């Protein structure tokens, strides 16, 4: 645990994250959470391949936190709200399952799905 607190890359990531959250609008926050899911799942897979259980656990925890934030931020008046909540909950449950029974293929699928969602969202904002 102490190692994580002294990890310069983790400290930089935290500062970057905190700075991006401050002053962000709702779309930017959704984008940040999607980015966190994608990156954290990728880091978990990489950590598993290196047999780094501490890094894997930290990455899975970060992914679950980002999914929880996405789920809590769903506008229930939006017609797609139920589908979004189901998507986020399903991904969250699958990631939590990987804590005890790691499944890289499932995590790769989740990562790809959220990458596609993020790309579609960014294209719609740019249009």
TrEMBL record:
This is Flagellar protein FliS. Pfam families: FliS. Keywords: Cell projection, Cilium, Flagellum. It comes from the Bacteria. It comes from Novosphingobium jiangmenense. InterPro entries: FliS, FliS_sf.
